[in-house]
Structures are given as structure tokens and as C-alpha cells.
Amino acid sequence: RTTDDDQRMTFGQVVIGPAGSGKSTYCNGMQQFLTAMGRKCVIVNLDPANHQLPYEAAVDIREVFRLEKVMEEHELGPNGGIMHCMESLEKNLDWLRETLSAHKDSYILFDCPGQLELYTHHQSMSAVVAALEKWHYRLAAVHLVDSYYCTDPASYISALMLSLSTMLRIGLPHVNIFSKIDLLKNYDGKLAFQIDFYTDVMQLDYLLPHLDSHPFTSRFKALNRKLCETVEDYQLVVFQTLNIEDKESMFNVLKVIDKSIGYVANPDELTARVALFAAADPNLERYRHVDVQEKYVEVETPLGILTEDDLNLDNWA
User: Fold this and answer.
1) What is the distance between the alpha carbons of residues 35 and 250, in angstroms, rounded to a whole number?
2) How confident is the model at residue 306 (pLDDT cuts 50, 70, 90)?
3) Which residues pair with 135 in a beta bridge?
4) Cβ of 150: how many Cβ atoms within 10 Å?
5) Distance between CA 172 and CA 85 in Å, rounded?
6) Distance of CA 248 to the CA centre of its chain
7) Cα 11 to the chain's mean position, in Å?
8) Residue 239 and residue 177 in contact, taking contact as beta carbons nearer than 8 Å
9) CA distance 250 to 181
10) Bridge partners of 189?
11) What residues have CB less than 8 Å from 224, skipping those under 6 apart?
12) pLDDT digit string (tens) for 149-196?
């Protein structure tokens, strides 16, 4: 029997990405940010390998599927164990629906496993997402990629292919994010181009000289070109940048996600938002690439490293 609660639209995010990309940290930070903005938010842990949660999970898959036990019983490794857990979840969707029913009035963050197979060619995660949509959950896939991949052209192309494959497979409104952007200056590699080159994903042929001069990727010149052309032909992949400790960065990401799923803030949330950003930069509504560039990025050029003065357009007259 269908109830009014079953028909109520619930908004949220399916947080995905490779292991180590910062999914749990993102969920923890986003929950705190949304709470400060007056939006009721809970986190659902769907990662059976995530046994050190930095947040309090409203629903935890480990209550029914414990990775260690699955590995022991079925003689599986960690990857195989996680895949088995997700297949079991797919077969026990009634449990998920029942446990989620207590949180239909909340904005939900789903913290998902980091196994790439689940998003590129395995069916279980797609089946879970399809079930959530059927139950009137309006969700965005938030795909986190470590910003470190921008420092190496080959890794960057790999990240683009992963993002594209995931977007086509999952079938949700999709927001790609370069996480840990605040750590970019700490990495050994410097960016070959301005940050908007990597976020806007345009004119990838500019990467070919870098790929062709690399000792490994230089052996695959034709493949390099075809991969770049494939990503550009779809014209789907773009990225936001995120520093989880910067509320302006968080707000920018949240605006993009909310727009993708049609979420509209209620009056109480709008009032809380005004209070939260009372002392913020008046230009907050137009969070720009140049802001990210100045704060976090060094660019390798033939003339050396660009400074903040170099990036100030007023000095270019």
C-alpha cells in the first residue's frame, strides 16, 4: 500500500569516486555545512569497508553486511568482498527502503564504496540507484577525483575517461569535483596550464605534446589522441573544485548540485544562509576560476612559476 511518505520527494547526493578521493570527509563536511545552513541532513554509509566513520551514520550497511565476515565465509579478497556485499544489497533492497523511510524528510548523503568496477561496468550500484529513483529520491551523483591527477597529463586523461564512463553508467545528474584543491600546491608536479583548462575540459590536444614527450605515454601517440577526442566528442565532462574547509568553495559546489536536481531552499534555510555568510566576500555568488587559481594553484610555464601578481589582470595593461 502506497502512503504519502512513499510519494514525498527526498533530495540527496550519491557520493562516489576512487578510494582515497575524500568521500567520507566530504560527507562529514557537507553534513556540517548543510546543518549550519538550516537544512536537515543525514548520512547513509553504503561502504562495507568503511569501519572508521568520521560521522554518525543514520543508516549503515555494516549492520547487515560486514566485509570481514563476508571475506572469511566466501574466501574472498577485499575487492571481491565488497562486490559481494553490494550484490547482496541489490538482492535485499527492502531492508534499504525500510531503514531509509525514517529519514524521508531529510536531505541524504550516500557515502559509497571506492571500487571503480561498481561504477564502470558492474550492475549492482546502478540497480541500487534505479531503486532509489523509483522510491522518489531525487539524487545527484557527486563524483570526487583527487586534484593530484591534474599534475600529470596521463593521470588527468585517465580521470576524464573514468568520469565519462561513470556518467554514462550511473545515469544520474552528475557533478564532477576535483577534491583537495587546497593541497595542490603541496604536490611535486606543477600544472602545465591554468586551472580552468582542467575544469572546463576543452582543447585537450594541448596535452598531446606533454603526453608524447613522456617516457611511457610517448609509445601510444595515436591512442593518446583518440582518448582526447573521445572525451571532447561527448562534451559531458566538466569539474568543480573543492576545498572542504572553505565555505565559499562548499557553497559553490552545493549550488551546482542543487541546480542539477532542482532543489529549492525553504525560507528558514535562506535566513540561515544569510547569517552564515554575513561576513563573507560580497562576490560569493560568483565564485570564479581566478579565485581558485590565486588561492591554490601554481602553474609551470617556460618563464617559470606564475605569481599572484602575474594572475592579476590589472597588471597586464
Assistant:
1) 13
2) very low
3) none
4) 27
5) 22
6) 17
7) 16
8) yes
9) 12
10) none
11) 157, 207, 208, 211, 212, 217
12) 999 999 999 999 999 999 999 989 999 999 999 998 887 667 888 899
- Mean pLDDT for all residues in the chain: 87
Provide the residue type at 182 as one letter. D
Whole-Å CA distances, 216 to 156, 192, 208, 229, 239: 15, 18, 13, 20, 27
Q: Got the DSSP string for 234-284?
A: HT---EEE--TT-HHHHHHHHHHHHHHHT----HHHHHHHHHHTTTS-TTG
Residue 215's pLDDT is: 79
* CA nearest neighbour of 115 among 261, 218, 17, 235: 17
Cell readout for 303 is 618563464
Phi first, then psi: what are they for 185, rounded to 5°? -70, -20
290 vs 221 pLDDT, higher one? 221
**CA distance linking residue 317 with residue 304, whole number of Å:** 21
Task: Tell whether pTM > 0.85.
Answer: yes
Q: Is the pLDDT at 310 greater than 60, yes or no? A: no
| Contact present, 163 and 17 (Cβ < 8 Å) | no
Please tell me the distance from the alpha carbon of residue 23 to that of residue 33, in angstroms, as a whole number.
15
Q: Most distant CA pair in the chain: distance in Å? A: 70
Which helix (H) or strand (E) is 185 found in, with range?
A: none
